[in-house]
Amino acid sequence: MDQLRAMEIFIEVARQRSFSEAGRRLGLTRAMVSKHILQLEDKLQARLLHRSTREVSLTDAGQAYLAPCMATVVQSQEAARALSQATQAGAELAGPLRIQAPSSFGSEWLADAVARFSLPHPQLSPLLYVDDALLDPIEHGFDLTIRVGGIPDVHALAMRPLAPCRGVLCASPAYLARHGVPQTPQDLHQHRCLHFSHLTDGTQWHFARGEERQSVRVQAAFTANNGLVLQQAAQRGLGIVYNTTFLAWRALLEGTLVPVLADWELPLNHLSALYPASRQPSAKVRALIDFLVAEYQPVPPWDRELATSGLLALT
């Protein structure tokens, strides 16, 4: 028996409380998961899990074993990482690199970054899939996923922050000339609002100014699942768009869009790099993440441009 592998499987079963779900996330059948757990229990001479038709739960022995088990697995992974970094430090990056990203960020920023990253590595073959659907990176076989906002499962995915993702309300000068400039969040009730369908709270938009908080349920005059579509509609004068600075920056600099309610802050999200936690990231995945961190930290270039022009106050 590979005891370390069995320990990894035990940890995932404890997290998921299910043999089947643990197997799905680890790429194993339920029978193979059960076999590893039985072998581990036999090795330890202790019953680690209560099994029922509805749920798996830890026994007292399993509860006591879980923390030192996790520490052992982490220590082993760190040792493997150190060895891998030492042996691959001078290795050429090669082969496919499957990346998924939101369509707007992928088109506006990531495609260029991946192209520049790939130039010194002619044997590397990036596959960039841009889509605003919240796809499961493990199920779809991505090596690296760029995600705005929350992580769907912190146990199955490891994360590295890349950059802040700031929201901004904006509209065209022509729209504001026709309909007036809102002075408070509540004024949005009287305006046409352009809504991004993947926002966590739907059409409930949240605002903060100092200690003050307001939330407004807007009436969406136009809804899309793509930020670029909404931005183009706003530039045509259709309404006020809930945008991100990484997409709106150029339009704001050129004046085709102007900020709305600029003295109010929208919730701060983050761009993160996600990869499967169950396996050691390859040298090419680590290298790309390091490249993107260097590109986007401490201040991403789109926010730096806006701050230089006085259109964004960095806090």
From TrEMBL:
Keywords: DNA-binding, Transcription, Transcription regulation. InterPro entries: LysR-type_TF_proteobact-type, LysR_HTH_N, LysR_subst-bd, WH-like_DNA-bd_sf, WH_DNA-bd_sf. This is DNA-binding transcriptional LysR family regulator. The keyword Transcription regulation applies. Residues 1-59 form the HTH lysR-type domain. The keyword Transcription applies. Belongs to the LysR transcriptional regulatory family. Transmembrane segments: none annotated. It holds the Pfam family HTH_1. One of its GO terms (molecular function) is DNA binding.
